[in-house]
Specification:
This protein is of the alpha/beta class and 202 residues long. The chain contains six helices and ten strands; from the N terminus they run βββαββαβαβββααβα.
Length: 202
């Protein structure tokens, strides 16, 4: 589904990655994917960060017309419901490999050290673990996390009830690895949802 990328050198386990671009950006008032930070749109910055790290990389969203010229595959989010869990489910359904790294396009400060911190725990994950998620003082950040393919079954059960589940609640309710993030990496998990938060980046 996605473009072929260089392997992560830490293990032989293949991983996929997707960037969620399906949010409505209501609080921001414009498409967050194309907001600029350090001279580059959020979405292009994340593509540059991830494309040589994962074996497969693609976008997940509602409208391919906005992203068709970026040079990586686009997966249509076909669920009628809204919410991040819907995008994650679409990504898991499309991914070629068992482990999928998911990040939101409104997290322009993500850096490789936080990805590597999570990635290193894949080899120690038991067969029961469904995901690996960072935690800051007990607050989980499921939009910068690894999901095992079987996590799709968990999300789908909730979607069949015609409701969009909280990803954080699902991570807490099922066997997952929750990693405390060192202070020096916590900035990587910054979400930019409002004009005020965007101004603070500069």
């Amino acid at each position: 589904m996605g473009i072929s990328c260089a392997k992560i050198p830490s293990t032989d386990v293949h991983r996929s990655a997707c960037i969620l671009v399906g949010g409505e950006s209501r609080r921001m008032g414009q498409n967050k994917a194309y907001l600029s930070f350090q001279g580059m749109p959020f979405v292009l910055s994340l593509i540059a960060l991830l494309k040589d790290t994962f074996h497969e990389l693609f976008l997940v969203g509602k409208n391919n017309d906005l992203y068709g010229d970026l040079g990586i595959p686009f997966v249509q989010d076909g669920y009628p419901l809204q919410g991040a869990a819907v995008g994650v489910a679409s990504g898991l359904r499309a991914a070629q490999h068992e482990w999928l790294f998911v990040c939101a396009v409104d997290m322009p400060l993500i850096k490789l050290p936080i990805v590597s911190l999570l990635d290193r725990h894949i080899s120690s994950a038991s067969s029961h673990h469904l995901g690996i998620v960072p935690s800051i003082q007990g607050r989980l950040e499921p939009l910068c996390a690894f999901y095992r393919r079987r996590f799709l079954d968990v999300i789908d059960r909730e979607l069949q009830k015609k409701r969009t589940p909280s990803l954080g609640a699902l991570f807490r309710a099922h066997p997952t690895i929750k990693l405390d993030v060192p202070r020096e990496l916590s900035e990587s998990l910054t979400n930019v949802n409002t004009p005020e938060e965007y101004r603070k980046l500069h």
